[in-house]
Design goal:
Blueprint: H1 2-22, H2 37-51, H3 54-67, H4 95-108, H5 115-129, H6 149-155, H7 163-171, H8 177-184, E1 191-193, H9 198-204, H10 210-217, E2 229-231, H11 243-249, H12 256-259, H13 268-276, H14 278-293
Antiparallel strand pairs: 1-2
Helix pairs in contact: 2-4, 2-5, 3-5, 8-14, 9-10, 11-13, 13-14
């Protein structure tokens, strides 16, 4: 009898484990429940990036800032909270693009496609829209009912981060040094505000090309103009390529946290490799993006599928 009870308990445990496993992400998650989900997201992103190429970088950054705080759970899309944190306030963009895609999907697949998945796929589609590599996105994330400004302030690496600080921030999310260098390559597109590189161009850093620093000063004065923008990649600012790494080789990284990757550091050889081998960068970047997209997702019955990405369901 005891044996029978033990077998019964073992069966319950096995069923529980199988249920937990089935709650993991799958690239075919919406094939039956919302077969046109991926097409709708791609279309929405393509239209947004076509009218504003910078939006591709903004959506990619929005995904990064989501995943590094509580995992990839769309917490960053909730009004207030994380949006008001230091790394996010006044600089995060793309909320309207995600909202528009969500509205379209709600009209055809009611409360089926999560905001977290929309944002994750939109990040991939943004890279593709600007000429970068594609990858298969595992799906099935659910949306959080909470957000954390304090975690956004503590867990998101900033523009003044050192290489070791960057490594520590990514290691905390189970991302390694190669992932770190590859994900930094997202700065091959997009812009940064003057306040984030002013110190670097006015003598705070010695590892900067003098002519490059001078060229940035016109639009980034020593005082004022905090939100004035500069391209993160001056060579091909709207093309997702490996020029970011070529820039680093000639000390033309815009942010301190960019140039630290090539500054007599342990990451120098990886930067050289990505600068000379676009395929190596693309491969490492897609690998890192999939890993980042898998940070602590809510699955199964965890969280919810929000009806509107900016607020929890009432």
């Amino acid at each position: 009898m005891a044996m029978g009870s033990a077998s019964c308990i073992s069966l319950v445990v096995l069923v529980a484990l199988a249920t937990a496993a089935s709650g993991q992400l799958s690239s075919t998650f919406y094939d039956t429940s919302c077969p046109r989900a991926l097409v709708a997201i791609k279309s929405g992103v393509a239209a947004a990036v076509s009218s504003d190429p910078r939006m591709g970088a903004s959506l990619l950054r929005l995904h990064f800032h989501d995943c590094f705080v509580q995992g990839c759970d769309a917490s960053v899309l909730l009004t207030g909270m994380e949006q008001n944190a230091g790394p996010n306030v006044g600089s995060l963009r793309g909320f309207g693009v995600i909202d528009n895609i969500k509205t379209q999907l709600e009209s055809v697949c009611k409360q089926t496609v999560s905001c977290a998945d929309i944002l994750t796929v939109a990040a991939r589609d943004s890279v593709v829209a600007l000429g970068g590599p594609s990858w298969t996105v595992p799906l099935g994330r659910r949306d959080s009912t909470t957000a954390s400004a304090s975690l956004a302030n503590s867990d998101l690496p900033g523009p003044s981060s050192s290489r070791s600080q960057l490594e520590a921030a990514l290691l905390k999310k189970n991302l390694n040094t190669v992932d770190m260098v590859a994900l930094s390559g997202a700065h091959t597109i997009g812009k940064a505000q003057c306040s984030n590189f002013r110190t670097r161009i006015y003598g705070g850093d010695t590892n900067i090309n003098t002519a490059f620093a001078t060229s940035l000063k016109a639009n980034c004065p020593q005082s004022g103009g905090n939100t004035n923008l500069a391209n993160l990649d001056t060579m091909t600012p709207n093309a997702f390529d490996n020029a970011y790494y070529t820039n680093l080789l000639s000390q033309k990284g815009l942010l301190h946290s960019d140039q630290v990757l090539f500054n007599n550091e342990t990451t120098d050889n990886t930067v050289r490799n990505f600068a000379s081998n676009a395929a190596a960068f693309s491969s490492a970047f897609t690998t890192a993006m999939i890993k980042m997209g898998n940070i602590a997702p809510l699955t199964g019955t965890q969280g919810q599928i929000r009806l509107s990405c900016s607020k929890v369901n009432s």
